[in-house]
Amino acid sequence: MSGKMRMDTDQLIRTLAADNSHRARPVGLVLALALLAAAPVSLLMFFAELGVRPDVMTAMHNPFFDLKFAVTLALASAAIIASLHLSRPEASLRGFGWLFVIPAGLLAAGIGGEMLLPQRLPMMTRLVGHNSKVCMTAIPLMSLPLLVASLIGLRHGAPTRPAVAGAIAGMVSAGLAATLYASHCPDDSPLFVATWYTIAAALVTAIGALAGSRMLRF
Amino acid sequence: MREREDEWTGLMRSAISGDNASYHRLLKAIAPVLRAAARRGLARAGQPVDQSEDIVQDILLAVHLKRHTWDANAPFAPWLFAIARNKLIDALRRRGRRVFVNIDDFAETIADQPPAETASAGEVAAHLNALPARQRDVLQSIAVDSASIKDTAAKFSMSEGAVRVALHRGLSSLTAKLREG
Questions:
Q1: Which fold has domain B2-119?
Q2: How far apart, in Å, are the Cα atoms of B144 and each of A11, A57, B74, B171?
Q3: Which of A28, A143, B22, B23 could covalently link to A20 via disulfide, CB atoms 3.0 to 4.6 Å apart?
Q4: pTM for this one?
Q5: Are the beta carbons of B168 and A16 separated by less than 8 Å?
Q6: pLDDT digits (tens), chain B, 181 positions
Q7: In chain B, which residues have their Cβ closer than 8 Å to the Cβ of A7?
């Protein structure tokens, strides 16, 4: 072939029609595959550096230990649902905000519940906890592979609000990483979770928004 | 206007279920609407309207490569206009303008039928020439020489599957190059 090639719109349309047989995978499938591929990396980081806390068998009988998982999984699920919705170009977040009320509400109920029970430690001690530095480092670090995966999944979609979609991808990864971290963390007070997990998740959400605004344009 | 949108939705449903002719008809039907909206957007941003064809081609490529994000149970027009609006804003931004593009721009143009015309565009053509030889040959054969996939396969001694792959890759990399600007 020689010479400069030109293509007018009718020719482009004919070419696109010829490619109609090509079927792209659904966004949900690509997102799931990407997360499954990234999960071993985060798990490896977790088991190499942290591991499940030694008293996990007794901890499981503590409702405040279990609540951590309910909160983090509720966040991850809400964010996955919202991100799949936002992967469609005409979608807005309207009507989806309430999804994020679920993890927040669970946490608020936990804080209320803990207030009603007699406590050995004063409130500030429970809030400050033992492990806030590890929490704030481990959650963002374990989030990173999952964040990349979430962004790859969303890139396969057509989000017209890339920064918002990126932020939600950040919440997906923070929710999943926090679920792992919760099994290591000795601090079970909902006050601790509401403070440090939230700060860690907010950081990942911000990174996601920044990355999304660049990566998710199509 | 309503009837027209319903017709688009029907055509897109047939297209998704494998009817290439419906897909061709749909793309032909939306192109003038997109062209009118692109011209309007450019004019409003104080840009020469002769660049509208670049934007139309950019939108058509995005529609094609992102059509799996359309929900076949939803109407097609809102999905199309969301893609088009996004591409138009992007194009104007790349030309250094910050403008607000109203979704109604697209809806309005359905009412007043713009004249059908097709101008040649520079951007897609420029990137075409930078594609790998095989993808370029296949695109040239199908786009310019109007050959079918079967004829193209025979011409280059390729399998039809390989032609399809080269065609799709060519369109994807064109889109990627357009995005890089």
A1: Rna Polymerase Sigma Factor; Chain: A (1.10.1740)
A2: 6, 69, 34, 14
A3: B23
A4: 0.89
A5: no
A6: 788 889 999 999 999 999 999 999 999 999 999 999 999 989 888 888 888 999 999 999 999 999 999 999 999 999 999 999 999 998 888 877 555 566 666 655 554 545 445 555 677 878 888 899 999 999 999 998 999 999 999 999 999 999 999 999 999 998 888 887 6
A7: 57, 120-121, 124-125, 128, 139, 143-144
